[in-house]
Structure formats: structure tokens, C-alpha cells
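ok trying again, last paste got cut off:
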Amino acid sequence: MKAVWNDTVIAESDDTIVVEGNHYFPPEAVNQDLMTASGHTSNCPWKGKADYLSIDAGGQVNENAAWFYADPLEKAVELKNYVAFWNGVEVS
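nice, full thing came through this time. structure:
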């Protein structure tokens, strides 16, 4: 699987976890040089608090385009620090 935005590969892995239609990439598969903590968070009743990242690629910024669970709830412990994408990021 690849996550691509603005003609830039953001993440690539053969070992994603699919939950609710989203591919979660292992942290080592994500180009961390393109990611910046955004300060935005959300809460999932069964996964816990999600922290969001913005992507800076090709001279543009995609705010809050990725999220991860640093301290997931028990039912989602396998997702710890795995990164998922949305907001125009193509995952295929």
C-alpha cells in the first residue's frame, strides 16, 4: 500500500492494518520528514484519542491529513502509533 499526496509518497508498506476502511501504516513506513504535529485531536469511543498530523509536500501543506493513536484503548492496542490518512491523500 502507498499513501500519496501532491505527487509525493508519504508512506509505503506491505503491512498495514485495515480498520473501518482505513489503512493504518506502521510508523517506520511513514516519511516523518513530511509530517508535522498539528495540535488537533479527536476521540473515538473504542480507539481513544487521535492526534493529527499535517503533511508538507511539494510546497503545500495538507492540514490534519493524518492521524494516529499514541495511547489507544485496549480494543485498539494494535494501532498504537500506526498512521492513517484522509483529506485528499490517495491510499492504494
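cool. The CA atoms of residues 5 and 88 lie 7 Å apart. The beta strands are 2-5, 8-12, 17-19, 22-24, 35-44, 48-57, 60-68, 83-85, 90-91.
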